[in-house]
Amino acid sequence: MKKKIVLYNPTAVFFDMPLALIAIGSQIDPSKYEVQIIDARIQRDAHARVLEACENAICFGATVLTGSPISDALMVSQKVKSKYPKLPIVWGGWHPSLFATQILEETKAVDICVKSQGEETFCELIEHFEGHLDLAQIQGIAYRDSFGFVQSTGKRHLKDMNELRASDYSLIDVEEYFQKKNQRQFDYISSAGCRFRCTFCADPFVYERGWTGIDPERMGQEFSYWKKKYQFDDINFQDETFFTKRKRVEQIAQELIDRQVNSSWAATLRGDQGNRMSEENFDHVKSSGLRRVLVGVESGSQEMMDWLKKDIKIEHIWNTARKCAERDIAVIFPFIVGFPGETDKSVKHSLDLAQKLNALHLENTTPIFYFKPYPGSKITTDVVAQGHQLPELLQEWANFDFVGSVGPWVSAEKFQMIERFKFYNKMAWRKHKLSTRPLQVISRWRLRRSFLDLPIEKYLVEKLSPQQSLS
Ligand code: B12
Ligand code: SF4
Question: Which is the most buried residue in 45, 54, 137, 212, by most CB within 10 A?
């Protein structure tokens, strides 16, 4: 009988495929082990299923993001620990990558934390569970030694993704994700890490500005294979910065065309990258199916952008926006407001730019987030040095990003104004049915006059269709 490895994805509000668990699970020799992925977003009674699956398993692993997934991951790990005290419990993902030691010092429900890229580390952990390798020899982990002290091993350097086995999607029920998403959208990660240095982002800390990507030819082969099996009609690239290498992206586009994958696709693009791409480059990716890009703007103030070390000029954003609009490529332009010390003028620049980008192309969206000092970033390190208190306990981290908690850098008044702006900006610049056209007219009128008082329309719309929050 094959030995079992149980992997868990905690609850969350979107239904992206659990790429981290697929990635690590795919490295395990299927002739020796059975990998079982349980996803609390998809499967009912997920905790009960985990407890059942862990019978005779050799380890239980969970992927954990900062925020509400921590609560669920902790709860299920505690249940597993109390039913199977000898079963090793491993956490990996962004939160353990940042707080490996803190987690192990707080809870006995977790035995090992994996930091950063996890494929090779997880294989070595399996070797350890089989008695072939010492934990101290495994790079990129924290663990409790036989005296109960938390030990941390050295950094594991980024492994070339082409040397890893391809992700095996048969580890999950792909059809269930299509159903939940309400579209045959295939999630895929083609690279790990990011070369840039934005000071609000954890990536430079976790991946040390390293980057590795799968070769286009291998991607082409994978897509042909999965297309035949799953008949997807959209690919959602989850890479941090998909367009990192322009030539590579061109080759990927050509693979999609040559292999007749016949699928639209969406990915992340930086403003400077879009600015550098020629009109021909844009035509090419569009013809291969590009339907949407996500271009992080963060701020409409050049001064703020420079402070964030985005290494992007506002004119780059405009050039990218124009090239996309001309080809009917939709763009998500996320903004962040409420950085420590951010002035009202800077926030106003952001709201103005958001409105203009929306007006440029009705398929554009401009979500506005409030700055939260996510761990691992330069700004967070700086505010902590100035006395800002970060959460310490896991439960505090779990409550960290509840929507509506805006941090100390946004007053209640400013929050109210921004929320109203978000509503009217959305209503003003999206396609409407005839019945809701008056709402569009009112919203544009309000924005023109910067009149956000008495937001009756907002109240009514939100009463009739409440939004789902992220955490
Ligand atoms: C998909 C996604 C989501 C999905 C989560 C889907 C899920 N599985 O539950 C949704 C849409 C829900 C989401 C939400 C948010 N996300 Co998000 N998201 C991503 C995204 C784009 C891809 C994640 C992914 O699948 N990566 C591919 C896999 C292969 O990589 P990986 O997760 O890093 O896993 C590797 C290692 O970490 C490790 N590993 C991971 N898990 C495990 C488990 C074990 C046992 C082991 C051994 C190893 C291991 O091995 C893997 C292979 O090397 C990442 C960016 C990115 N490219 O990673 C952001 C990212 C993870 N998200 C982020 C943020 C900030 C958010 C939001 C706060 C966004 C917002 N503004 O509201 C929210 C809230 C999160 C929450 N608290 O619920 C941050 C990280 C924050 C953090 N510290 O946790 C990221 C890194 C983006 C960024 N650069 O800022 N997100
Ligand atoms: S915000 Fe995007 S581009 Fe900047 S460091 Fe993070 S992943 Fe890289």
Answer: 54
Nearest to 338 by CA among 310, 380, 369, 383: 369
CA-only gyration radius of the chain, Å: 23
Please give the backbone phi and psi of residue 236, each rounded to the nearest 5 degrees, phi first. -110, 100
Residue 365 belongs to a domain:
yes
Query: Ligand 1 test: best mutation among 37, 65, 239, most atoms within 8 Å of CB?
Result: 65
Between CA 152 and CA 1 the distance in angstroms is: 34
CB under 8 Å to 453, separation ≥6 — which residues?
none
Per-residue pLDDT reduced to its tens digit, 146-192:
999 999 999 999 999 999 999 999 999 999 999 999 999 999 999 99
Residue 50 CA to chain centroid, in angstroms? 24
Clarify whether residues 281 and 322 are in a common domain.
Answer: yes
- What residue owns the CA closest to ligand 2's atom 3? 196
Instruction: Please check whether residues 307 and 364 belong to one and the same domain.
Output: yes
Q: What is the pTM of this model?
A: 0.96
Nearest CA-CA partner of 337 in 200, 216, 150: 200
- Residue 247 bridge partners (DSSP): none
Cα 176 to averaged position of ligand 2 atoms, centre (Å): 31
Residue 94 CA to ligand 1 center (angstroms) comes to: 6
Give bridge partners of residue 212 from the DSSP assignment. Answer: 192
C-alpha 4/C-alpha 1 separation (Å) is 9
Q: Atom of ligand 2 at shortest distance to CA of 204? A: 5
